[in-house]
């Protein structure tokens, strides 16, 4: 059973129509639980509606389809993140955290009946097409999204590689909708990107929390240590969580644990206490002790907020950027016997200080809005310009002139700093952290 930071169906319904009451027992001595009659009345009402629809609806519909629709409606009425998935949808969901899948590369949420883009995933067709955090998806291939469940929206946006999907979107602050045609592609699941900003100072970008994120981050640290050993080692890290929509809870915990020696990372509190759990940091030989600044924005959600909240409350890092998305609930993935699955919200999570960020978000220690670069007509310049050569374990082109490569990397770091004001400020601050007594090192 997987836990994300992103109902058993009974084959028949039995309605009891009679009650046996012994004559020897006085009526005033019989105690009936109040909730039992109400429960059976609700089941009776459901059975009646099911029968009426089967017999009188304009089109012939099977009982199986009606029950599935009822289950979907039941879950969608709870919160934006609980949902029922048929066998195909459940399989697709598993692929997003462990294998390759094909689509456009966006994380979405259902808010007040609208399909909202939480964040476009970097280096994907949606990212290159200009989709942004906060965009509202109005229709998919001409079909209004208001008619669809969240999982149905996901299924329609995904598809075979090389095929096209038409999305009608509404950007924040724009009056007229825009129609974009996006060609589906393989969505990369590499979740950590790393780059040297200056000697001893590194930018480490987490794009999602999938099964190998912690392993990839530790590998990025090992590579950075090898590269900087002659210059005195790593002096500071900018941990970039901007536009990271979250993912697996265990990865969020282990990522935070990389930077923490001890103390609480996050606590989970459910309805009856069965889901309650407190996650504590464990001292490890490969813990990272260098100064850290973490960047967040409105696209930082769920698992990203767990990491940012833990590092902030434990005074391990300074949090910079903009207020995060505010998804403070925990979902469990529950497989059902027929191959379908259930994503059910079972708890809320709390930062080490005991605060819930549900619908509130993480407020950074230093709020800095992202500024668009000046004197440029490139519509993508305010986005992160990360290319194949920036990825860990990328294939080389056969040239092994180290000095030339080092020069190119240095120029790339300067270029990225020049167009990203939040990153520039983060680098300046991380250099000053050793002098700030309130931050643990």
UniProtKB/TrEMBL annotation:
GO cellular component: outer membrane-bounded periplasmic space
Domain of life: Bacteria
GO biological process, one term: signal transduction
Region (Disordered): 392-420
Signal peptide feature range: 1-26
Pfam families membership: CtpB_N-like, PDZ_6, Peptidase_S41
MF annotations from Gene Ontology: endopeptidase activity; serine-type peptidase activity
InterPro entries in UniProt: ClpP/crotonase-like_dom_sf, CtpA/B_N, PDZ, PDZ_6, PDZ_sf, Peptidase_S41A, Tail-specific_protease
Keywords: Hydrolase, Protease, Serine protease, Signal
Domain PDZ: 90-158
Sequence similarity: Belongs to the peptidase S41A family.
Name under which the protein is recorded: Carboxy-terminal-processing protease
């Amino acid at each position: 059973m997987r836990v994300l930071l992103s109902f058993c169906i009974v084959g028949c319904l039995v309605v009891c129509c009679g009650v046996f009451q012994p004559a020897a027992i006085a009526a005033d001595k019989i105690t009936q639980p109040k909730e039992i009659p109400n429960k059976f009345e609700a089941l009776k009402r459901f059975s009646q509606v099911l029968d009426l629809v089967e017999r009188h609806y304009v089109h012939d519909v099977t009982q199986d389809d009606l029950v599935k629709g009822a289950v979907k409606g039941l879950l969608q009425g709870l919160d934006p993140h609980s949902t029922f998935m048929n066998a195909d949808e459940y399989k697709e969901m598993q692929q997003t955290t462990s294998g390759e899948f094909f689509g456009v590369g966006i994380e979405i949420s259902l808010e007040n009946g609208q399909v909202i883009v939480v964040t476009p995933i970097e280096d994907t067709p949606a990212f290159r097409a200009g989709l942004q955090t906060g965009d509202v998806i109005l229709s998919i291939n001409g079909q209004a999204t208001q008619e669809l469940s969240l999982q149905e929206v996901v299924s329609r946006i995904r598809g075979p590689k090389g095929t096209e999907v038409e999305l009608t979107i509404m950007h924040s602050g724009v009056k007229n909708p825009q129609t974009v045609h996006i060609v589906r592609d393989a969505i990369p699941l590499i979740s950590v990107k790393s780059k040297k900003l200056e000697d001893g100072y590194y930018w480490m970008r987490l794009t999602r929390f999938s099964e190998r994120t912690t392993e990839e981050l530790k590998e990025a640290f090992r590579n950075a240590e090898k590269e900087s050993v002659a210059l005195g080692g790593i002096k500071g890290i900018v941990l970039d969580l901007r536009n990271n929509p979250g993912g697996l809870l265990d990865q969020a915990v282990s990522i935070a644990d990389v930077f923490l020696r001890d103390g609480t990372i996050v606590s989970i509190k459910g309805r009856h206490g069965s889901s309650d759990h407190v996650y504590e940091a464990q001292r490890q030989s490969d813990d990272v002790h260098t100064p850290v600044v973490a960047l967040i924005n409105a696209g930082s959600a769920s698992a990203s907020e767990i990491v940012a909240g833990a590092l902030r409350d434990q005074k391990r890092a300074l949090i910079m950027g903009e207020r995060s998305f505010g998804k403070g609930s925990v979902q469990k993935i529950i497989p059902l016997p027929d191959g379908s699955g259930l994503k059910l919200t079972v708890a809320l999570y709390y930062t080490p200080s005991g605060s819930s960020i549900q619908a509130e978000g993480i407020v950074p220690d230093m709020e800095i809005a992202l500024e668009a670069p000046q004197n440029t007509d490139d519509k993508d310049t305010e986005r992160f310009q990360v290319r194949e050569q920036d990825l860990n374990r990328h294939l080389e082109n056969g040239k092994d002139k180290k000095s030339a490569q080092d020069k190119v990397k240095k120029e790339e770091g300067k270029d990225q700093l020049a167009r990203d004001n939040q990153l520039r400020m983060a680098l300046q601050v991380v250099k000053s952290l050793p002098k700030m007594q309130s931050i643990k090192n």
